[in-house]
Amino acid sequence: MTTAAAHNEHGNTTEATLFVAFELSEKTWKLGFTTGHGQKPRERTVTARQQERVLDEIAQAKRRLGLPETAPVVSCYETNGVSPMQTNSAR
Asked: What is the pTM of this model?
């Protein structure tokens, strides 16, 4: 088993970070936002592949969770048989 770790390049461990989990499916993407352990995630659902809507939800989550606009975003995703980069024309 291989384990990968993310390293904070800025060296500032007190910097507020927005963590985003994506659950991707053919028609919708579920987004979960948090600033860390023990916090109930802010959950949103958007239409699949609407990148502008995702960016808007990230901005809203930062405001709602009290983070600055410049806060870094760390994300992960789980797919249900669809690639995040697939387009309708590729089907």
From this structure: 0.72
